[in-house]
């Protein structure tokens, strides 16, 4: 006979599923072990041995890439959802030089920007060089918690052809394989549908929307938070 007051009789099946999912998650997280970023990392090595994808070559950005970068940095549609001011040529070149100074990942907020070059497409200021069609950021969110952030920009003439997915996928694989983060994340203006679609193509999940986090373009804007855990990335790769 069942005790009418036994709480088990009134258990909500959805709650039981939630509890099981939480237990699975805790077990998965515990199995991943404590944070262990392989730092310091010197990205200079990637200048000599760049990341290569089917169509692109990715190596640390250089100050001498400034002319190609300015070709997309100056466009209103590119900076629409980026925290970038409109820059004239001189300040654009200065900005690229600052970003090119990032080589060592060792502490929170350290960064490296990888220039995506397209072999066979001549650079805008030196036809002997391959053109930089976009750049891909790796930034340290937290050494203590083994979190890295990715970011990306591609010249509009080269969008809609899968180049950003190809480059960002290679960067994501590289950071998980070489730097050992527990989690990789991206923060987007929530209106940025192209960037959200890219996150999803990379296997990142939309984990949160931070309401009215920033005041841009004369109004409060939401921020979308995307993330992928090491074990989710490994499962997607079948490794
Ligand atoms: C975010 C951004 C990098 C995405 O670029 P993108 O070219 O749309 O991204 P992808 O490389 O993934 O290309 C996907 C598109 O190419 C198409 N495509 C064509 N060939 C493809 C291929 N071989 N593989 C994959 N996709 C291909 C896809 O169908 C998709 O088209 P759709 O947008 O019509 O659905 C770009 O919009 C950008 O630079 N924006 C400005 C800067 C910015 O906002 N950065 C993000 C800040 S958080």
TrEMBL record:
Q: Which Gene3D superfamilies match?
A: 3.40.630.30
GO terms of molecular function = acyltransferase activity, transferring groups other than amino-acyl groups
Query: Highest taxon of the source?
Result: Bacteria
The question of whether Transferase is a record keyword is answered with yes
What keywords would UniProt list here? Transferase
Q: Which residues form a coiled coil?
A: none
> What protein name applies here?
RimJ/RimL family protein N-acetyltransferase
In which organism is this protein found?
Agromyces ramosus
Source organism phylogeny: Bacteria, Bacillati, Actinomycetota, Actinomycetes, Micrococcales
